[in-house]
Amino acid sequence: MLKKIIIHNFQSYKHAEINLCSGINTITGLPESGKTRIFKAIKWVAENRPIGDTIRRNKSKETYVSLLFSDDNEITRYKSNKENSYILNGMEFKAVGIYVPEEVEQVINMNYINFQSQFEPHFLLSNSPAEIASFFNRLANVEKIDDSIIYVNSKIKDINSNLKFEEERNENLNEKIKTFDSLLDFEDHIEEIEKIKDSVNRLDNYIDKIEEIILSYNNIDKLIARYEYKISLKPTVDKGFELLKEVEKLNNEISNKESIIYELEYYDQEIEKLNNENEKLKKQLKDNFPKNCPLCGKET
After folding, report:
1. Rounded mean pLDDT, 150-177
2. Selection from 93, 79, 71, 80 nearest residue 41 by Cα
3. 66-110 pLDDT, tens per residue?
């Protein structure tokens, strides 16, 4: 049971500590004195709503609401510029999104049944009998039985519907079977039909063989025509081979003459080298030979 509420920098409250007694507690006050904000502070801890910073007083550095219970459990919902968490008996849990940590839910043990705002209809008085029954079923945790009954009834309804459909389908099939009764009169003709079918199959085989023979004959004609054309080209091919031999002979002669020309060019180069050497020797002889002959004394 809730025995104390501590509110710090929550909306219009700077700091307040409210002690509760066992049994029913009534909070009274003038309009706009903060009664509803106490209710919202408890819901902020129990449901983690509203999210954001709208609950913080004048953008204060930190805001928290603590709930102390008679079994010595203490839950604090804390929010600052850097922290957003729950604290359960000194153990911290991150407040993510709109979810309440499971450990906190187990201790606080509050849900929508425990909260009713100022302008909501009176509890259960405006509900229909079915809604009231559903509410007490949820309260007693027997709504699963109702859900199971609804599920089973739905399945029974589906099975009955399918059964009716299958019965109608069976009747339609029986009617169609009756239309085939006249086929029994044709049993005597089945053997004859099978014989005719065998004859037709044999004829089909003969036709296939004849078509294969015709195809082979056409292929032979094509081969004969192809070889006749090749035979007609033989004189031309023979003449072409003779020309190739003549060309090969001319190429050999040209190659031999090119070799001779190469040798002649080589000899011309050697002769030119010798002529050059001869000219050099003549020049050296002329330069080194005395102006007057050593034997006769005449000018050379």
Report:
1. 83
2. 79
3. 999 989 999 999 999 889 999 999 999 988 777 889 898 888 887
**Phi, psi dihedral angles at 109 (to 5 degrees):** 50, 50
Using DSSP, state whether 226 is helix, strand or coil.
helix
Please, are residues 53 and 43 in contact by the beta-carbon 8 Å criterion? no
Q: What is the pLDDT of residue 181?
A: 63
H or E, element range at 68: strand 62-69
**Token pair of 14 as six digits:** 């700077």
> What backbone phi and psi angles, to 5 degrees, belong to 72?
70, 10
Strands in 91-94's sheet, in edge-to-edge order, are 13-19, 2-10, 62-69, 74-80, 84-88, 91-94
CA distance 100 to 119: 26
Contact yes or no for 44/55 (Cβ under 8 A): yes
SS3 of residue 1 by DSSP: coil
**Token couple for 291:** 């102006």
pLDDT at 184 over 60: no
Contact 17, 4 (CB under 8 A): yes
For domain 2-120, give the CATH superfamily. P-loop containing nucleotide triphosphate hydrolases (3.40.50.300)
Q: What Rg do the C-alpha atoms of the chain give, in angstroms?
A: 61
Q: What is the mean pLDDT of residues 229-253?
A: 80
Tokens representing 8?
């710090």
Q: Please, where are the H alpha helices in the chain? A: 35-47, 102-108, 129-139, 143-178, 187-232, 234-288
Q: What is the mean pLDDT of the chain?
A: 81
Domain ranges of the chain: 2-120, 122-179, 186-232
Rounded CA gap, 139 and 117, in Å?
20
How far is Cα 10 from Cα 93, in angstroms, rounded to an integer?
20
